[in-house]
């Protein structure tokens, strides 16, 4: 089998490094099994987004999974068919924000986001002056608890996993949205092999 270097940022329960050092998660298992079916032997790295994206752009990693598309990325990289839809929430402990109906209303607040992350036009289009960048979801959530920011952008499943047993963070109902996630490749053939190995399977899943 051909060796292939694969990376993703930690997004439990979808992909994460367990206490025993093993990598686990539904997205991890799906991507690795499909790459193996395509004839590849994946070597997987789970690290913070800024590191893995830098390495992927430099060609040090062949594959980056659980990624959002953007016009810039579509020009540079090869995208798989949809991996799944992510439910993205804007969460807060400030009850005053729960009545917001439009994303533009966030411009008057401090919004925690993951540095370098593409959240879709709803969030990416907000003024940079209202965004506070963090290295990962756990830090975004902690920033909300510490009142460094008024609210934060996070994946619904990751939030539920990381905040189990902690004070409740409330999603702003009107600002919850879905965004498609993909697997990015530096080489077109590897992307095509991956998609071909997934033929006959349901395209993507909601989680």
From TrEMBL:
The keyword Magnesium does not apply. SUPFAM superfamilies: Periplasmic binding protein-like II. Residues 4-92 form the Solute-binding protein family 3/N-terminal domain. Keywords: Signal. Pfam families: SBP_bac_3 (PF00497). This is Solute-binding protein family 3/N-terminal domain-containing protein. It comes from Enterocloster bolteae.
């Amino acid at each position: 089998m051909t060796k292939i270097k694969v990376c993703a940022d930690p997004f439990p329960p979808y992909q994460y490094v367990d206490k025993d050092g093993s990598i686990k998660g539904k997205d991890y298992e799906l991507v690795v099994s499909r790459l193996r079916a395509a004839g590849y032997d994946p070597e997987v790295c789970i690290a913070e987004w800024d590191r893995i994206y830098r390495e992927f752009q430099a060609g040090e990693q062949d594959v980056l999974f659980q990624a959002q598309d953007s016009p810039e990325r579509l020009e540079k990289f090869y995208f798989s068919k949809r991996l799944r839809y992510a439910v993205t929430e804007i969460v807060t402990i400030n009850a005053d924000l729960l009545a917001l109906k439009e994303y533009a209303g966030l411009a008057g607040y401090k919004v925690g986001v993951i540095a370098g992350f593409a959240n879709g036009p709803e969030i990416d289009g907000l003024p940079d002056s209202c965004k506070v960048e963090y290295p990962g979801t756990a830090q975004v959530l902690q920033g909300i608890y510490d009142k460094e920011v008024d609210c934060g952008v996070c994946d619904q499943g990751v939030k539920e996993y990381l905040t189990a047993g902690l004070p409740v963070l409330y999603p702003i109902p009107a600002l919850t949205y879905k965004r498609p996630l993909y697997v990015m490749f530096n080489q077109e053939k590897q992307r095509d092999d991956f998609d071909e190995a997934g033929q006959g399977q349901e395209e993507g899943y909601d989680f």
